[in-house]
Amino acid sequence: MVDRKKVTYRQALNEALHEEMAFDENVFILGQDIAGGAQNKAPDEFDAWGGPFGVTKGLVGKYGKSRVRDTPITEGAIVGCAAGAAASGMRPIVELMFIDFLGFCLDQIMNQASPMRYMFGGKAKVPMVMRTMIGGGFQAAAQHSHSCHSLLVHLPGLKLVTPSTPYDAKGLLKSAIRDDDLVIFVEHKGLYDTKGPVPEEEYLLPLGKGEIVREGTDITIVAFSKMVLIAYEASVKLEQDDISVEVIDPRSMSPLDEELILNSVRKTGHLIVVDEDNPRCSIATDVVALASSKAFDSLNAAPKMLTPPHTPVPFSPELEKFYLPNADKLVELVKETVPAHA
Amino acid sequence: MDKMTEVTTEPQKETTTFADIDHAMGLRMYENMRRVRDFDEAVHELNAAGELPGFVHVYVGEEGIASGVMTAINDDDYITSTHRGHGHCVAKGVEMDGMMAELYGRVTGICKGKGGSMHIADFSKGMLGANGIVAGSTPIAVGAALSAQMRNSGQVAVCFFGDGATNEGIFHESLNLASIWDLPCIFVCENNGYAQTTATSYAMNVKDLAVRAKSYNIPGVIVDGQDIIAVHRATKKAAERAREGKGPSLLECKTTRFYGHFEGDNLKYRDPNEAIEARKRDPLVLFADNVAPAIGVTTDEMKVIDEKVADVIKKAIEFGRSSPFPSPEDCLNDVYVNY
After folding, report:
1. Is the CB of B136 inside 8 Å of chain A's CB atoms?
2. pLDDT for A109 beyond 70
3. CB–CB contacts below 8 A, A to B
4. Is the pLDDT of residue B17 over 50?
5. What is the pLDDT of residue B1?
6. pLDDT value, residue A119
7. Which chain A residues are within 8 Å of B115, Cβ to Cβ?
8. Is B105 left (phi over 0), alpha (psi -120 to 50) or beta?
9. Does position B115 have pLDDT exceeding 60, yes or no?
């Protein structure tokens, strides 16, 4: 029996997929290695992987190879295929294994699925989810460590969510699957083994609504995905310096819970945005621009960002450690930003 | 295990009889082609007169393909289309009033003036969208075919695209996916000899695109696109095969566009004789000369159709012209959230 207080992010996602496939027979999953072994006959052989990190493990045995559909390595075709299936009555969940492979399917996202509803006069529904994975920290180097979600936030017509906890992962994935627009569901590969409470009973979380992870009065830290954990860790450390940090997890980048962020900034007068994407033209610059343009009078100092430098993700552990944001860097940045208490 | 790898050629009407085409089907074919032709001839003139905004690509000369396909599939079957998509829309039964109003950018347009010529869609008619991205719709048709297969609905999805699309990676990915899953998908290549200005003879090293089917172990059929009967028959065969669960087919319909790539094209890259020669093989004329007499469709019957279609198009133009523009703020709706 799973301790419901210690459910992993991976397990939470798996539960959401199980529940939604049982809830709606039009829900199906397609992606590379999501069962892993489609060519085999015996169930334990065709469920070899359950995705590269085991998120889809056990689904094929219950729902069959048609609804849990291994595909060739053909990102453009499977994302477009999902759009076509969504436009004709199904609710596909397509897995883009690593967000680094986005280039292969970008046309299907930016010219096909995301503008469809608008360019067809509001009559077309495209109820599809694209699950994908971001994140460094695994010495996977420049082509398997991207967190380039801001590229997609740039596009109108799609939703993009970035769950940071098992609870959020399950509730947001269930909502994403039931949503009638394209939802990009961004998981962080460094979160799959994290644990947290997930209720036994069913629940949904609204897309586009963030939460205050920790209340504080001196500074607002807006953090996304795994960076929420770093922000929380920094906020605990900063207690010793008598700095009260408010940690905001918007949970979605599109749509963005602007009011939640602005209300917090208006209260604290300081803002740092933490994200793992490249710094230029990013969700971090977007949130800084939001606060600067809509809460300027409340700001006591220039808003700041903690992101990696504007370089590709390096390989060597020493280089990658330098590259990635962490709690210590955040603590230093907060101390630079907030004046010392007298 | 080979399914069917050989590339075949659909016999042309000169070499066959018309036992499979009855009088009613003949009338339907003629009316369908006439609607497609006259709609885009009207668009051609309206564009030249400066009445229509935006990029416009007309289908004139290629009617045998859209009409040949659409008279061979069912109303609830799916199609995806291209930048040269008016013909596919009209042939599939999308209302011309809404189409014309869309081309005029009016709020009464089929997409409320938000799509325009290259994005006409009507899901209620199984028309999943024209498409401004070459080869962009190929996986979407595959997805519609997968949807039909999973729902066991008996529907097929027809994917229209041009010769240029067959050099895009996504085209090959789509054929492969449709092939390995035996999807009820018919890939219809409208090979009009040019991808914008670039001739197929320059852009690829094969004479017949149908051979590209071989790589995916599916039938590849070379069809005379000016011959509606040949297109109709090839589509029927492919649709039967698809509905029987035997998988996709690739039809290469050889054709010629009478006008340029887009309205305003100077056509300097093409020998003027090509259009002159092509007009000798006008699909409507070929039908009237060869098919109609053989199946008992009379000149009078065709004349009645001509008049009826002219009237529908005249009304569509009036509807487009007289409809109001959207209000500027309409720009902001029809996405899930307003920014």
Report:
1. yes
2. yes
3. 141
4. yes
5. 40
6. 95
7. 119-121
8. left
9. yes
Extract the tokens encoding B203: 């852009």
| Residue A1 placed within a domain | no
Is the Cβ of B125 closer than 8 Å to some Cβ of chain A? no
Within 8 A of A117 by CB-CB distance, chain B residues are 334-336
Contacts of B169 in chain A (CB under 8 A): 76
**From the list B146, B176, B339, which residue is nearest A85 (CB)?**
B146
- In this structure, what CATH number is given to the domain that contains residue A230? 3.40.50.920
**Is the minimum CB–CB distance between A74 and chain B shorter than 8 Å?**
yes
E strand or H helix at A196: strand A195-196
Q: Whats the size of chain B, residue-wise?
A: 339
Closest of A109, A85, A113 to residue A99, by C-alpha: A109
Residue in B144, B151, B336 closest to A181 by CB: B336
Residues A164 and A297 reside in one and the same domain = no
A206 within some domain: no
- Going by C-alpha positions, the residue among B28, B76, B38, B32 that lies closest to residue B59 is B38
Interchain contact B33–A (C-beta under 8 A): no
* pLDDT confidence of residue A171: 98
Q: Is B264 a member of any domain?
A: no
Query: Is a pLDDT exceeding 90 seen at residue B13?
Result: no
Query: For residue A40, what pLDDT is reported?
Result: 85
Write out A71-107 in H/E/C secondary structure: CCCCHHHHHHHHHHHHHCCCEEEEEECCHHHHHHHHH
Please give the pLDDT value at position A42. Answer: 78
Q: How far apart are CA B45 and CA B41, in angstroms?
A: 6
Q: What would the mean pLDDT of A152-179 be, rounded to a whole number?
A: 98
How many domains does chain A fold into? 2
What span, in angstroms and rounded, lies between the C-alpha atoms of A160 and A152?
Answer: 8
pLDDT of residue A2: 77
* Whether residue B4 has pLDDT greater than 70: no
Find the domain containing B139 and state its range. Answer: 7-257+271-331
- What mean pLDDT, rounded, does chain A reach? 96
CA distances from B54 to A120, A296, B105, B115, B153 (A): 16, 41, 9, 11, 38
Q: Which domain holds residue A191?
A: 7-196
CATH code of B241's domain? 3.40.50.970
- A144, A146, A188, A270: the active-site residue: A144
B80 vs A84: CB contact, 8 Å cut-off?
A: yes
Smallest CA–CA distance from B145 into chain A, residue: A85
How many C-beta atoms surround the C-beta of residue B288 within 10 A? 16
Read out DSSP for B130-147?
--SSTTTTHHHHHHHHHH
Say if residue A203's pLDDT is above 90. yes
Q: Is residue B1 part of a domain?
A: no
**Catalytic status, residue A18:** no
Burial class (CB in 10 A: 0-12, 13-18, 19+), B246: middle
The CATH number of residue A41's host domain is 3.40.50.970
Single-letter amino acid code for the residue at A202:
E
Question: Which residues share a beta bridge with A161?
Answer: A185, A252
Helix, strand or coil, per DSSP, at residue A137: coil
Q: pLDDT band for A1, please (50, 70, 90 cuts).
A: low
- Listed residues A133, A165, A196: the one ending a domain: A196
β-pair partners for A8: A195
Closest approach of chain A CAs to the CA of B110, in angstroms?
A: 7
pLDDT level of residue A341 (50, 70, 90 thresholds): low
User: Touching check for A39 and chain B: CB below 8 Å?
Assistant: no
Number of domains in chain B: 1
Q: Does B159 touch chain A (CB under 8 A)?
A: no
ipTM confidence: 0.93
CB contact (8 A) between residue A122 and residue B112? yes
The three-state secondary structure class of A43 is helix
Q: Tokens at residue A324, please?
A: 């990635």
